[in-house]
Design goal:
By secondary structure, the protein is of the alpha+beta class. It is 42% helix and 19% strand. It binds iron/sulfur cluster (2 copies).
């Protein structure tokens, strides 16, 4: 069907591997799926003034919530910082353990693995699927129909959980459970079905092509490898010369590889690891499980294919074995801990009341009928707290002159929780006062005092600007 849109390649029928890496992969799949599906349903108390969804990206109000951390649109640089940190962490992991991210944690790998499991459930393991594809029978089309129906169901669920990160997940779920489909906006349907379509195509059809041809990470990962990086490798010294194992034959004067190709048929990207490290290899370790099973059956030690370093493969002495504690472990860890600590500190300590202050430029000043001069400024106060705040705004430097806020009482300005307020601020000096300033341009300071319902001042912010009189 959709395979025709991808480069011509033999269709793969990955066989189920049995072993510790397969088990690890299944457990991690389960863990990552649980995190993906449950996270939008976690709640976090924000005192009824903000959504109580622990992780929420509120596009409409330009805010992102992550438990106690709140990021406003103006602070989007934090997101850039988090992305850069994630990239550095990924480079660190890759330089130590090769492409384990690709093999165990990447969305494409996790979803493809689930889709292959569904295929296997309905159509059987590798040989059954090959035989089924050769026939034309009602059973074949029925089993394919069930497979695709399940894929579509999983894809729609994937889309639903994705949009739950951007909307109130409980309200959305309630609407679906109560069949109130008309109350869900077209935009949400668009995203659910868009993500579902992507999932269906990528995990159902594109599969290993994404890792091989579409993912840029596969292209530059080799730049992060060196001889001490842990990679999935075939021990050529032990395995070659390979040959089929004849009845009663011993392993004298030959390698341990019996050319059974079990490592090839389980590979989700369809490569032969005996040809050396290849760009297509996602380091999933399934070929290790397959070969270990074969070695166990023929009574040879496991590990003909294993996670190892090139240094140890070339010179198999204990000193060349993989070591987690290498110089790069320390400097990468130092950078990661330092930068994430600083980011976390600045996120926790960031001011909860923020201001911006700018002068209206057209006109620069206005001469009033009594000879006084007025300048107009735009003052913006952002209340990022979960309580309404009261403010008193006054001119603090010089200690004379007149300050008025258009449409507000400058002695009592209330800003609701999580709200920004624009205040058109007029400052004027009489002709006499101007003589005291005695400059065409002078620095003025405006004091913003938080007054807790006219009680004691809680917080003082000073903003400054230039007053122009000529
Ligand atoms: S599974 Fe092991 S023995 Fe069989 S072909 Fe692969 S490397 Fe050789
Ligand atoms: S060669 Fe082995 S580790 Fe690499 S993708 Fe294939 S099965 Fe996974």
């Amino acid at each position: 069907m959709l395979e025709k849109y991808f480069i011509a390649k033999k269709k793969l029928y990955p066989q189920k591997a049995i072993g510790k890496f397969r088990n690890l992969k299944s457990r991690l799949n389960f863990l990552f799926l649980a995190i993906y599906c449950l996270t939008p349903f976690l709640r976090f108390d924000r005192e009824n003034t903000a959504p109580n969804q622990a992780v929420l990206i509120d596009i409409v109000n330009s805010k992102a919530y992550f438990f106690f951390i709140e990021i406003w649109a103006q602070e989007v640089f934090y997101l850039a910082g988090i992305l850069i940190l994630s990239a550095v962490a990924l480079f660190f992991i890759t330089s130590l353990f090769g492409r384990v991210w690709c093999g165990y944690a990447c969305f494409q790998t996790v979803w493809t693995d689930i889709f292959i499991a569904v295929e296997r459930f309905f159509q059987g393991d590798r040989n059954d699927r090959i035989l089924l594809d050769r026939k034309k029978s009602f059973k074949k089309y029925f089993l394919k129909f069930l497979t695709h129906l399940t894929w579509i169901f999983i894809s729609i669920l994937t889309g639903f959980f994705f949009v739950s990160y951007f909307n109130d997940s409980i309200i959305l779920l309630n609407k679906i459970i109560n069949l109130q489909f008309t109350e869900i906006s077209l935009k949400i349907y668009g995203w659910i079905f868009g993500i579902a379509g992507m999932t269906y195509i990528m995990a159902g059809f594109a599969r290993e092509h994404v890792c091989t041809y579409m993912c840029p990470y596969a292209r530059f990962q080799s730049a992060m490898f060196d001889d001490n990086t842990l990679i999935v490798s075939y021990d050529q010294k032990r395995g070659e010369p390979r040959d089929k194992l004849k009845h009663g034959e011993t392993f004298e004067n030959r390698g341990h590889c019996i050319d059974c190709k079990q490592c090839v048929v389980v590979c989700p990207t369809g490569i032969d690891i005996r040809n050396g490290l290849q760009m297509e290899c996602i380091a999933c370790g399934l070929c290790i499980d397959a070969c270990d099973t074969v070695m166990e059956k023929i009574g040879l030690p496991k590990g003909l294919i294993r996670y190892d370093t090139l240094a140890h493969l070339n010179d198999p002495i204990p000193q060349k074995k993989f070591r987690f504690l290498q110089p790069r472990t320390f400097y990468y860890s130092f950078i990661l801990i330092l930068v994430s600590g600083l980011m976390l500190y600045s996120l926790i300590k960031k001011p909860q009341i923020e201001t911006t202050f700018s002068q209206e430029r057209n006109p620069l000043f206005i001469t009033l009928s009594d000879g006084s001069i007025r300048n107009v400024y735009n003052l913006k106060i952002i209340n990022k707290t979960h309580q309404a705040k009261n403010f008193k705004i006054s001119l603090s430097k010089p200690d004379f002159g007149n300050l008025k806020i258009v449409n507000h009482d400058e002695n009592n300005i209330t800003i609701p929780a999580e709200t920004a307020l624009d205040l058109r601020t007029m400052v004027s000096f009489s002709a006499n006062e101007l003589q005291q300033i005695n400059k065409a341009e002078t620095l003025i300071e405006i004091e913003i005092n938080e007054t807790n319902n006219q009680k004691n001042s809680q917080e003082k912010i000073i903003v400054s600007g230039i007053f122009i009189s000529e």
